[in-house]
Amino acid sequence: MFLLAVVFLSSFMLTGDLIQLTTDGGALFSISFPGMKNQAGEVVQRLWPMSVILALVPLLALIALFLYKKRPLQMRLTMLVLLLSLGTLILGAFYVLMFDRKIDVNIIWKVKVLFPFISAILAWLAYRAILKDELRVRSYDRLR
């Protein structure tokens, strides 16, 4: 259940703008899945690490969702999803700070900025639920 929510939330991150940046001159830039775009929608700078992480999170969460018969592997993938979601936050903050240093910008936050944080929390809850299931299965094996 939690992993499915992670898949949906992180899939929404692939569409639309994540953060908008405005300069004092009135120029508008936005950070989205393909990279940094200008007002016309043209990609000014590709942000490959961010794009790769944004694509990997829903893919790995979906794969982990179907690994219910291999709980140890499912737990590892879920932890990787959690770390990548947190990495998205850190990388996004890094890009915003770097653009702010190059060009003096004002940040317009979008709701989608919270999605990686929520995805990380949901991945942690999924990890705990999978761990509980694994411990329950091991206790049943001990009773046999």
Describe the structure.
By secondary structure, this protein is of the alpha+beta class. It has one domain: Butyryl-CoA Dehydrogenase, subunit A, domain 3. It is built from 4 helices and 5 strands; from the N terminus they run αββββααβα. A 5-stranded antiparallel beta sheet has the order 4-3-2-1-5. A hairpin with a 4-residue loop joins strand 1 and strand 2. Helix 1 runs antiparallel to helix 2 and helix 2 packs antiparallel against helix 3. The radius of gyration is 18 Å and the shape is elongated. The mean pLDDT is 89.
Would you spell out the secondary-structure blueprint of this structure?
Elements: H1 2-12, E1 17-23, E2 28-32, E3 35-37, E4 43-46, H2 48-65, H3 71-102, E5 105-109, H4 115-143
Antiparallel strand pairs: 1-2, 1-5, 2-3, 3-4
Helix pairs in contact: 1-2, 1-4, 2-3, 3-4
Q: What's the quick description here?
A:
The protein is of the alpha+beta class. It has 4 helices and 5 strands, in the order H-E-E-E-E-H-H-E-H. It has a single domain (2-143), classed as Butyryl-CoA Dehydrogenase, subunit A, domain 3.
As for the number of domains, it is 1
Helix-strand topology string? HEEEEHHEH
Beta-strand percentage?
Answer: 15-25%
- Find the structural class using helix and strand composition: alpha+beta
Backbone shape: elongated
User: Count of helical segments?
Assistant: 4
Radius of gyration: 18 Å
Compute the separation of the termini in Å.
30 Å
Architecture (CATH level 2) name: Up-down Bundle
The strand line-up of the biggest sheet is: 4-3-2-1-5
Query: Poorly predicted ranges (pLDDT <50, ≥5 residues)?
Result: none
